[in-house]
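Hello again, I could really use a second opinion on something today. For a while now I've been wondering how a particular protein folds. Please have a think about how the structure follows from the sequence. Here's the protein in full, and shout if anything looks odd to you:

***
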Amino acid sequence: MRVTAKNLSHAFQDDHWLFRDLSFTVESGEMVALTGPSGSGKSTLLGIIAGWIKPTRGTSELVGISRVGWVFQNPHGVARRSALDHVIQPMLAAGAPRREAIKKALDILSSFGLDRVAHEQFHQLSGGEAQRLMLARSLASKPDLLLIDEPTAQLDASSSLTVIAAMGVLAKSGMLVMVATHDTRTRDACHRSIELSEH
């Protein structure tokens, strides 16, 4: 599985270029940071890779990838559903028996350090817990490619480190993980980075 970009360029209608002639290949099992200052087009590039945005020039191709997951900067969950329910749901949707889904979901929550809040409602979670929960849910959904937008932007240092470690777990599971970030700790935890301000 891989993502391949060739000479990607994107501009707004006022001819302001976010980036130009961007080429790269990312393989499964890699965690790659998309870095650059605010306004450099990190989130836009994620949207192009996902197929939501048509680039001004160039191509982006997904090879061997059938499922794409997305974790947004602000975690979106169902306020009064438990953390456990959020992780169970994609497994039930895929046809797993409920008892088996619960066991697997508890194991996943534990691997993300969320076992103690498994039965807490989403609105009761801290920012770091909510962000890790969305990553745990992604593991349960089993996407081939996971796009993550500014996962540590609103977190304190301790929560940021736990989220960064959680993203590493996803890459080690075989997913291809691409992270838009301005956080140097997140960038340094990735296998490599693509700097948009250089394009």
